[in-house]
Structures are given as structure tokens and as C-alpha cells.
Amino acid sequence: MHVMSEDLSNLVQPGRVHRQIYTDPAIFDLELERIFGVAWIYVGHESQVKSPGDYFRTFIGKKPVVLVRDAAGDIRVIHNQCAHRGSLVVANDNGNTDEFMCCYHGWTYHLDGRLKAVPLQHGYPENFDPSNPKTAMTQVPRVRSYRGFVFASAAADGPSLEEFLGHMATSLDDMIDRAPDGEIEIAGGVFKHAYDGNWKLYLENLCDAAHPIFTHRSSIDAAQQQSDAVHSDGTGEIAIRQMRQNGAPYSFWESQVGIWTYPNGHSYLGDYHDDAKLVAALKDPVFRDYIAAMEKKKGKAETRRVMEVRRWNSNVYPNLSFMSQFQQLRVVHPVAVDRTVVHTYNFRLKGAPEQMFRNTISFANTVNGTGSLVLTDDLEIYNRIGMGLSSAGAEWIEIGRGYRSDLPDAHGGRRGVNSTSEVYIRNMLDAWLGYMTAPTLSSPASGGGKYPAA
Amino acid sequence: MNAPAQKPDPSRTSHYVNDALYRALIENFSDWQDDARAVTDLAVRDEFRRLLEREARLLDQLRYDDWLAMYTPECVYWVPSTPQAGDPRREISVMFDDRRRLEDRIYRMRTGFAWSQAPASRTVRLITNVEAFATARDDTRMLRSNFLVSEFWGDETRVLTGWAGHRVTRDGAGWKIEAKQVNLIDCDQSIRNPSIIL
């Protein structure tokens, strides 16, 4: 690998970025090491592992890991790798178990990853010590939950999760605060998407306010021609409103919508989609019931405060994007420099009327559905960018829209003068450059000699 | 000048897809593959086989208006995203379309701006293992068939496969489709941009 820090610094310039960072396999490998191997990576939600023994299989970068609640009820993230010959230990996506057992030679592990038993142990040399913490499904060095959202960092040292999130924690708060009981849980299934393009393209699209009118033109046209005299249930209304909303004119995006960015690459689109536009607000009986449930549990003032938070997609760099108003969450998995997989989840608001979750499902089907009238456009765009960038015909990508009009934000970030600013891409690339050119940090604690020296 | 008439709030005035429809859907699609109810009359089975083959042909030929005419005015097209398809109100679907959404889906493809279908895929569908089952209602049958769709798009040909359940209802001398459930074997996985109608 011969990518030097000076080279990397030259690839991100004011208002433009070199296509190489989306196409170079050597840079992708470095990203796995210097970004996904260091930053706080979203792993899963505590509701996926409610009881001791519950586990959920996922990845940090390309490293297979398991999120598990151990016998004492603590949340752990352990490497999904047998300490014997390296086999993947957990193959099911999720489940409940008393112990983990490798199917190759039967090594078993406690739920926190410690080695439990080794068949034929008498055959190993005398200095083989099953209680050595490295002879284990090793734990990822740092694991923290922010109000149920579990993050892990493969770096033993570094900023705390709270420091890493900064003001973006308020977007996670908004996910939870919308539940009358103050709790949310993952439910309803997982959509899995893949495209032939770089992982960074996904986050760069989710706060892009200038693309819907072109990219989603077909579903905008379809929704606009539909007569309002033909009705389906309320969930049908969610879909049609959303598709029509994508066709709002530029004047809307440039006057009523904003983009906010924060350190470490995070950002959100805000002041978008007030509830009146999507759920017919107080005219909608379901929403009225929901507000009533909120006010009963939280009081009128707090309910009003929560309802006035109007955020669209929030991105926590580098692998998480969520949408608090309709309880959607997407996790980005980098697979190769030109291959990305995205998993999308739905949350149920505890204490809310059942119909609210039905709306969440309907919204998911419309916007994140594998065969949705909207997402299929985006997936096609990612593929086309992937194909386009593979050509050296144009070396530089323009990300300068709004460059001279960005404004400081009250919480230590930068915001665009309006939502069509590409400030969120520049902000992500600033973070990217910071991670990629940082002096070598302490190396990850896991790995190393599995077999201790005599 | 007269002010335009206030449109009624649609969420309160109409429930085109209502709870009764969902209940019937879930009931029909959870407990119907019963050997005791299998239709054994070869002529009747052949009638249903021809119906499914015609549907496949119309979709391969992109004859969406003719295809939609095979469905009842109130209909559901459902591609579950969970291998043991559950309640579509509580579980996500690859596609869950009432007639209005189905019309949107077709309209959209004809705009020329549905980027993942510009140009349109070329498809060939094989329909096999057609079985028919009687239901508690005289005018309703459930059909099960296996399908294999070869789709050429971009620069590659891929295969989408699984089984479909059709709920058909008597319409004069023939039958119309009230609900179609398409069960892809990889419905909960990444299915590269399934933009065609299955």
C-alpha cells in the first residue's frame, strides 16, 4: 500500500474532491483501518438484544462482530471469530443462546466472549492457557450505548462517544422523545440494499436536497396525476404525500429547508416536512390520538417542544443515517471500494397508537422499500455514479455549491445558507481527511498473538 | 369569484384499503394450502393455468393495461419482505400496492424518468407447479404457482424466483385476481433494484 498522507491531503480541496477516493482499492483499505477501525461505529440497538443470551450479528467495517447481552445483562460487542482456527462462530443473523460454539472443533465461549471449554485440551502444550483474555472471541475495546443506540470503537483510546456525537446527539434524542413511553424498539423487518458504488455516496445522497426533483421525477409525476378522489387508507396518504413532496420547487428548498453540519462529519436536514404536510396533522384522527398519548405522558409543553423538532435525515458519520419523524434507521456497510450494502430498520414508538407504526411501515415501503417507487431511483443513481467515476475522463468532482455562503452554527457547526448547499459533503470530507491523515493512533487492542509465548 | 370547494380530508372520508380487507388478506394467505381442498379436476386446473400463463405473457410484453384488467377494481399486489409473510401492516414489504399505487407504478414506468427502467428490462417468465384450492367461498379460489423470471437489464441477465399465491374470484364466465402475493426466495435480502412487476 503506497498511499501517503500528503497524497491524501491533495485529494480533498476547497470545493472539489478527486474521484480517486471513491475508486482506489488502496484508499478503501486505508478507510477500513483509519476510519472504521478508529471512529465510533453504530452497531445496533439495545432492543435487538433484550434478554441475556440475545445476540445480533453485524460488522464493523468488514470485521464480523456480534452484539450480545451477556449473562449479567451487560451489552458486549465481540469479534465473530474463533480463537482456534479463525472460523466465523455465529452464522445466524440473530437469536438467543447460552454459549457460542464453533462448528469446526467445538470450542465454546461464554456470552462475553471468554473461552469456556476446549475439546482435547490435554493435547495442547503446557503453556496453553484457556483463560488468557486473548484466547477468546475478543471484545471490541470500547462499547457505549447512547440511550439504547450501541456504538463501538476498535481504538482503545480516543474521544468519548458523547464527544464524538456532540450536538448530533439531539437527533438521536428526537428519535426517542417521540415515543410517549420514552422508549423505542426495532420491529417490522429489515430491508437490505446493495449497489455497485462507494460507501460514501450513500451518506452524500441522504442530505441532498437538490436531487429529488430530477432523480424522483417519475414518482412525483405519478403521484401528482393521481386523483385525490380515489382513496386508500391513511397509510396510502403517507406514500402519496411523500412522493409529491419530492417535487417541491427549488424555491421551497431554498427558503424553508436547512442543512446543519457538525464536527466529525455529522449533519442533518431540518425544518422539512412539518407534520401538516405528511399526516394531515390534527385533522388526522391517528395523529390526534398520538398527540393525546404524548400529552398524557409528557405534558403539553414537552409534547409541543418535541413536535416542533423537524428533522429529516440525520447522518452520524461514517455509517449511520436515521430519520426521526418516521422512525427509520439505515446502517452503511462498506464491502469493497465499489460495493456497498445498506440495512434499513424501523422503530416502534412505545405508548403510541398502533396505527403510528403502520404509518412507519408505509413510509418505509415508500422510501426505503427494496422495490419502492422512490428508492429504486436512488440505487440506480449510485450505480451510475459508480460507473461514471471509474472513468478518468473527469478527475475532479464539484462539491462547491454554497461554498462562500456557509454560516457558523450556534452549536459549533456550520450550516448552509439553505438546504441546497453542499456543505454537508464538504463537512464529511473534512472529517474523512482528519481520520485518514491523523498520526498513527494506538493500534486496536484485539488481534495479535492468540497463542502466548512461553 | 367562487372559492374552490374545500376538499374533504381523505384520511377520514375513505378507507379503500380498510381493516376488513387486511384481515381477509391475512386469513386467506395464511391457511389455504390444504390438500383436502385441492382442485383435482384437470379441466379446472387448466383454466387457472391458462390464467397465470396469460398474466405472465402480458407482463413480459409490458401490456400493463391489459394486465391490470385481469384484476378486480379493488385489488392488492403484495411482495412480502419477510420469508414467512406476516401482517403487511406490521411488517415491511418489497412492494405493497393497492390499485392506486399499482396505477402509480405503471404510470411511473411510462414517464421515461424511472431511471432503473430506462430502458425497460426484457423478461421471460416460466410459470409451473400450478395448484388450485377451494375456499370457504364458492366464488373464490386460491392458486399457487412457482415462477422463474429471467430479466435482462443493463449488461446482465439475472433470475428472480419464488412462488406466487393468487386469490381469484368469479367474474362472469371467467375469473379475476383480487390479490397476488409474490414470495421471492430471497425476499429479505438485497434484491438488486427489482423495478419490474413480478
> How does the helix and strand content of chain A classify structurally?
alpha+beta
> Approximately how much beta-strand content do the residues of chain B carry?
35-45%
Strand order of the largest sheet of chain B: 2-1-6-5-4-3
Number of helices of chain B: 5
Distance between the termini of chain A: 34 Å
The total strand number of chain B stands at: 6
Mean pLDDT across every amino acid position of chain B: 88
For this structure, the quaternary state is: heterodimer
Shape verdict of chain A: globular
| CATH class (first level) name of chain B | Alpha Beta
The CATH superfamily of the largest domain in chain A appears as: Naphthalene 1,2-dioxygenase Alpha Subunit, Chain A, domain 1
Roughly how many Å is the radius of gyration of chain B? 18 Å
Could you please describe the fold and organization of this structure?
The complex is a heterodimer of chains A (454) and B (198). Chain A is α+β, with helices and mostly antiparallel strands. Chain A folds into two domains: 41-153, Rieske [2Fe-2S] iron-sulphur domain (Rieske Iron-sulfur Protein); 167-437, Naphthalene 1,2-dioxygenase Alpha Subunit, Chain A, domain 1, CATH 3.90.380. Chain A is 31% helix and 24% strand. Chain A is built from 16 helices and 22 strands. Chain A has a nine-stranded antiparallel beta sheet, with helices on both faces. Chain A is globular, with a radius of gyration of 23 Å. With 198 residues, chain B is an alpha+beta fold. Chain B has one domain (41-184): Roll (Nuclear Transport Factor 2, Chain: A). In chain B, 25% of the residues lie in helices and 35% in strands. Chain B contains five helices and six strands. The chains are: A alpha+beta (454), B alpha+beta (198). The interface between A and B is large, with 55 and 47 residues.
